[in-house]
Amino acid sequence: MVRPYLPLKALRAFEASARHLSFTRAAAELCVTQAAVSHHVKLLEGQLKVALFTRLPRGLMLTQEGEMLLPVLKASFDQITHTLDQLGEQNYREVLNVGAVGTFAVGWLLPRLADFQERYPFIDLRLSTHNNRTDMAAEGFDFAIRFGTGAWHGIAAQPLLPASLSVMCTPDIATRLKTPADVVGETWLRSYRTDEWTQWLLAAGLSSSVSVPRSIVFDSSIAMIEAAQQGVGIALAPPSMFSRPLTSGALVQPFSTAVSLGGYWLTRLQSRPETQAMACFREWLTMATNA
Questions:
Q1: What is the DSSP letter of 183?
Q2: pLDDT tens across 156-179, in order?
Q3: 3-state secondary structure at position 228
Q4: In sequence order, which residues have a C-beta less than 8 Å from that of residue 110 and are 6 or more positions away?
Q5: Does the N terminus or the C terminus of the chain have fewer Cβ atoms within 10 A?
Q6: In angstroms, rounded to a whole number, what is the distance separating the alpha carbons of residues 255 and 9?
Q7: Which residues fall within 8 angstroms of residue 156, CB to CB, at 6 or more apart?
Q8: For residues 168 and 153, what is the distance between their CA atoms, to the nearest angstrom?
Q9: Distance CA 222, CA 113 (A)
Q10: How many CB atoms within 10 Å of residue 63?
């Protein structure tokens, strides 16, 4: 079979631009000018007769056609890179890009990574953290571990761990919390999910219409718990992810009340075929979270 002409420079320019959502950052990665990247992408769009990006005042946004093309190109370029590395080093290694919500990465995954590396020495794991909001196609993730209910459009999701939320604070603050109603007198540390404290109040048998006290919003539970350890306020977070400060006594749980609004999930794009490294990581993670 005679293959059609493949505009490799244009395809590389598009793939890099799509990952960064920026012609400028793609140009820096490819060591060419921003104008050259933009030109190659326009040539590719002209050849395909579709727009791959929506040009915005600040950056780019993938069109539906661009979202369809990106995972195919990324997988192809990754496979070419892996094969060349294998030929050059005579030592096969496979790269695995995983994005994990910071709470899970620090509280559960990092303490167990040595076991994964020992079991699968041929996998080079590239771990990035995020605040639960991620674009897997644009960021080039094979997997993303995130918190939620498992409902994400175009995403295959496998449940990993439940994550009930409970009040945590310093021992000094805990002495002021005689009953759940006393939380209203403290500064609340919370995430951007506005219903968490409301649901906890209901679970504790209180009215959800109580006057909301002063609160501080965090985009990371890790930062929230650090603030709680410094006595800034009381945090609502999953104790299972913060066993170290609880074990050391830096934090305590003044009440047994907990509320479940979701859990941790292993997710991937439905359009992304599973590689050997992905299968190994999924099987290891499933085994470890069920242990």
A1: G
A2: 999 999 999 999 999 999 999 999
A3: helix
A4: none
A5: N
A6: 60
A7: 267, 268, 269, 270
A8: 33
A9: 19
A10: 15
